[in-house]
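Weekly sync, protein design subgroup
Attendees: M.S., D.O., the rotation student, P.L. (late)

Item 1: inverse folding check
M.S. brought a backbone from last month's batch and wanted to see whether the design step gives back something sensible before we order anything. D.O. pointed out we never logged the input encoding, so this time it goes straight into the notes. Structure tokens as presented (222 positions):
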């Protein structure tokens, strides 16, 4: 995908194309890179999503809105949108990152997308950035069930166990796989009282724990 096609997919044409180029530049490639734009874009994204949820789900309480926002702005959600835009094909990465598959790494994809939001804000202001964010997030918003505020699996599992007056699960690191710059973490979720031992693997311990918790929930009998 060429930058012009990315602009079309975003629904925003840059008056300052150099901002888009910077947003797509990882620090391993050189300067100016996208870290400052990512910092800005993170705040723009959170504000835009908060406003979107506030308007769309008038009946939800603050805690429910906060959990929904957290689920929408997490790394995995951003990386999914970035993949849909084929951002990996446009990233400027150093040789080491290219060889290690950096263009597919969720953290790099998510950071680049946030940097793009920051670049749009600098280029044309908050309303332009909000419009792009809302367009990209529309499919995810349409999938939200307002009766299910989107609790993460670890929180959901904890509440299930508390409802049964059972102790909290125990998470243990089983192994790490791969090179230091592209490690995969394997974690086990143990619920002794129910005889459940589920595993999850991800690019971070947190992701692995969430996957293990999700599998544990699926094993708990109604």
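Designed sequence read out in the meeting:
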């Amino acid at each position: 995908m060429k930058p012009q096609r990315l602009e079309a997919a975003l629904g925003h044409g840059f008056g300052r194309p150099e901002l888009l180029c910077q947003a797509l530049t990882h620090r391993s490639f050189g300067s100016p890179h996208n870290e400052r734009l990512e910092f800005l874009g993170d705040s723009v994204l959170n504000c835009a999503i908060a406003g979107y949820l506030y308007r769309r789900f008038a009946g939800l309480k603050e805690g429910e809105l906060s959990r929904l926002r957290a689920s929408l702005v997490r790394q995995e959600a951003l990386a999914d949108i970035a993949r849909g835009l084929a951002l990996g094909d446009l990233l400027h990465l150093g040789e080491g990152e290219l060889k290690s598959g950096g263009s597919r790494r969720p953290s790099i994809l998510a950071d680049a997308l946030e940097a793009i939001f920051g670049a749009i804000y600098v280029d044309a202001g908050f309303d332009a950035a909000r419009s792009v964010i809302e367009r990209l997030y529309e499919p995810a918003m349409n999938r939200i069930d307002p009766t299910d505020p989107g609790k993460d699996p670890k929180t959901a599992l904890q509440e299930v166990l508390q409802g049964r007056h059972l102790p909290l699960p125990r998470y243990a690191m089983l192994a790490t796989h791969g090179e230091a710059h592209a490690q995969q973490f394997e974690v086990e979720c143990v619920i002794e009282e129910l005889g459940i031992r589920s595993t999850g693997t991800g690019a971070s311990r947190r992701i692995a724990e969430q996957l293990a918790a999700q599998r544990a929930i699926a094993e708990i009998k109604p």
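Discussion: The first strand starts at residue 170 and ends at 177. Residues 40 and 118 are 5 Å apart (CA to CA).
Action: P.L. to compare against the previous round before Friday.
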